Amino acid sequence: MQHQKYKKFMRIFSCLLLLSFVLLLSDCKNTNDRAVKSGQDAAPPSLTAQEQPLRTDSFKYALKSEHGSCDVYIDYPTEGPPVIVSTLRDFIKATLFEDAAPDLEGDDAQEMVRKYCMERQKNLAKTLEQMGIHHVSESDAPEEGIDIRMVCRGEKFVTYEVYRYSFITHGAHGEYSDYGVTFRISDGHRFGDDLLAKTDEDLYAHIRAGLKSYFEIADDRQLEEICTADLSLMPMPTFPPYLVADGVRFHYSIYDICPFDWGDPAFTIPYAVIRPYLTESAKELLTTQNSEK
pLDDT per residue over 81-93, tens digit each? Predict the structure, then answer.
């Protein structure tokens, strides 16, 4: 009798153990699904769950008037470690409002963007007035836009890219800028010139290779014919390099190194190549997966 009770108990215990294992697998799968749906598809394979995972709300906003249009896209942090959430919100606000930011109640991202677009509309109207233009057609109306996107979230860092463009009526061509910024999640530190520990001829060789890849050319002589900058000194981009999923991104602004028609050269040097040139604080952000790429 006791033996039968024991066997019955073991069957029930085995079923419960199996059910717990299935639920655990299901929970892992759901966690992975949520990570994919959160829009962080640019995150490196090293991404791991944190006690307070950084989450964003992505939205678009557009405002049109007789003076032109203003379009905005933002990945706005909504949850996560308080320090990095606060740092990123301040960064976004400062990027939108190059001068003093308006007073806002709380952290209403939609209201912030609405005020930004209204301010830009006023500037467009003032610019047209200064140009003596009192009417513009819909096809020739001024356009302004800005994208502030999270492009990479690692276990210890997060990187945003900012793309800003402007087209004014009767202008020769539009203007734009594109750059990235890496932040340390633990304390919100913004990396800049402290990302690279050294620059020498070996690193310059990798940068030249990246530029040739961007321009789709084969040798240094062709590169020198394209570039207006002195490549023997190898100027760095106006905005410092930044971390992405597979390496360090170098993104030159227009006119940094070549004429406008060639655009803003950008390329990524893999972590396995550039790691020796990083500062110790930058290396500490990387995991094994990052450095092996």
Answer: 999 999 999 999 9
Q: Can you read off the two tokens belonging to residue 251?
A: 């993104």
pLDDT tens per residue across span 12-42: 434 433 343 333 333 323 323 323 233 333 3
How far are the Cα atoms of 49, 70, 74, 123 from residue 166, in angstroms, in the given order?
A: 39, 9, 17, 12
Residue with tokens 């094994």: 288
Q: Say if residues 38 and 282 touch (Cβ distance below 8 Å).
A: no
Q: Measuring CA to CA, which residue among 274, 217, 263 is closest to residue 241?
A: 274
The helix/strand count (H/E) of the chain reads as: 8, 9
Neighbour count for residue 131 (Cβ, 10 Å): 12
Query: Tokens for 137?
Result: 């057609």
